[in-house]
Design goal:
two-stranded antiparallel sheet; 17 helices; 23% strand; 490 residues; 18 strands; alpha+beta
């Protein structure tokens, strides 16, 4: 449809003021180009199969040989059409071909497919940049809805209307400004504006509803908009950042969005949809956490710039590693979880490199004294090169507090948060003995390959909360907010 334009924040139809969510089929085909060669393609889920589009057999094999030598060191988008609209398919890595060359089929797995939102002159005349560029990328619905429930956009009816029993009902939307917020930050020196709001889909009456009339639905969306047009190559980076934000606030990695789409900005600074994205993920299922079991986006909204920086700088990686990727693993603990948690606690201790603890200064003083002792020894004994002939260098390099001592320190710094969770679930106290038993689980698995659970894993959840609390401290979330948010997800 070519009559789509934006009114302020949402991509909408002029007549109805609401959006139609457009999907990319699971299976479709068309033509695509790789350098100067044209291929027919078929997409089945995320597997793309190419066939040279030449009638002459020798020319088909020439195309096969050329694609084998195609430079695949850098990810690239392959452009074509699907007999309906323009299409772009992300290709990463090698093309898979028949080893002996008896089959000209070429295959690869794609993580992202983009389809143009229009195919007529009206659509192309509105583009303010090349189609392969965008001014905004919007993530709609899915697990975002739990972080800021869409019903916030509905004006609650008067009590007198609720008392009516004549079948009449009014649904009234509140103004955009009542439920929309924005914040700004930078990603790789590019100014980004995050908009959080609620959108609507139009009413429909189609075969999928078996004749029922659908009044439409509402969904929460996150939108990244940019001062400068971005190329398709940036989509994956922005998707990963938003996905990690939602995962951290949901406490699960297996999160999804109902739709991801691209927009361009016209001369009136309004957005119009230019493409819909299909982004593949490895998850068997998706988180079903409800609103009361996640961290609301607006409880951390003022710290989103810090959260984004933490994600970009890989400070959130050890936390994300702990989050379940399958609903079957929620409330379950494996020995790998224990190992990952121990690693995350090590990282948490060093997370804020600007912060100096008094006891850390003692270790630095010890290192300095050892270094002076080594220097004195070398002066008196030139017959030995201690750095080359002994293990002093490696031993000195890793001199630090034990993991048990680090966890105790982290616990003391976050004791009220941890104790609240311990009390909530009637768990064993976190103390030197329980921490020692927990660390032994990891050590026994690492050094002997054995696992004897006993009661050692009972403090897993409180220690997991320490990792969360440490990361939230790193992004400067206030202490009272940290405690209240963690009691929602634990």
């Amino acid at each position: 449809r070519d009559d789509v334009e934006s009114r302020g924040l949402g991509d909408v139809y002029k007549r109805q003021g609401v959006a139609y969510m457009k999907k990319i089929n699971e299976n479709f085909c068309g033509y695509i180009k790789v350098e100067d060669d044209t291929y027919t393609y078929n997409v089945s889920d995320n597997i793309v199969t190419l066939l040279p589009a030449q009638s002459d057999v020798s020319k088909r094999y020439d195309s096969l040989y050329r694609i084998k030598s195609h430079n695949t060191d850098t990810p690239e988008y392959l452009f074509g059409e699907d007999n309906d609209s323009m299409i772009a398919i992300l290709h990463k890595g090698k093309f898979v071909t028949n080893l002996i060359g008896t089959n000209v089929a070429i295959r690869f797995a794609t993580p992202i497919i983009i389809k143009a939102s229009g195919n007529a002159q009206g659509f192309f005349s509105k583009l303010t940049e090349d189609w392969c560029k965008f001014h905004a990328i919007t993530f709609c619905g899915g697990n975002i809805n739990a972080l800021y429930t869409p019903d916030i956009a509905i004006e609650q009816p008067d009590i007198s209307e609720l008392l009516k029993y004549d079948g009449a009902r009014t649904i009234k939307m509140r103004p955009w400004s009542d439920y929309t917020r924005t914040t700004e930050f930078q990603i790789e020196n590019e100014k980004v504006t995050l908009t959080v709001s609620v959108g609507q889909t139009a009413e429909t009456n189609n075969a999928e509803n078996r004749g029922a009339y659908n009044l439409g639905k509402m969904y929460t969306f996150f939108r990244f908009s940019f001062e400068n047009a971005q190329r398709f190559e940036k989509i994956e980076k922005y998707y990963i950042i938003v996905k990690k934000i939602v995962a951290i606030l949901t406490a699960q990695n297996n999160v999804c969005f109902e739709e991801v789409y691209l927009s361009q900005r016209n001369s009136e600074q309004k957005y119009f949809k230019t493409g819909v994205c299909k982004i593949f993920d490895p998850y068997e299922n998706y988180s079903i956490r409800q609103r009361h079991k996640v961290i609301p986006i607006f409880s951390v909204f003022d710290y989103i710039p810090n959260l984004v920086n933490g994600i970009i700088n890989s400070k959130a990686d050890s936390l994300l590693e702990l989050l379940p990727e399958d609903n079957k693993m929620v409330n379950r603990i494996s020995i790998k979880n224990v190992q990952d948690l121990c690693t995350a606690l090590e990282v948490s201790y060093q997370l804020d490199d600007k912060r100096k603890r008094e006891k850390d200064a003692l270790v630095e003083e010890l290192k300095k004294n050892i270094k002076n002792t080594i220097a004195e020894f070398v002066k008196e004994h030139n017959e030995i090169d201690v750095n080359k002939e002994t293990t002093i260098s490696s031993a000195f390099q890793y001199l630090d507090y034990t993991l048990k001592q680090k966890i105790l320190t982290l616990y003391n710094e976050n004791s009220d948060v941890v104790n609240a969770i311990v009390s909530k679930y009637s768990l064993p106290s976190v103390n030197e003995n329980s921490i020692t038993s927990f660390v032994k689980l990891r050590n026994n698995k690492t050094h002997s390959g054995t696992v004897e659970w006993g009661e050692s894993a009972n403090i897993y959840v409180p220690l997991f909360a320490i990792v969360y609390a440490s990361f939230f401290k790193y992004i400067e979330l206030p202490h009272e907010v940290i405690k209240s948010t963690l009691l929602r997800i634990f």
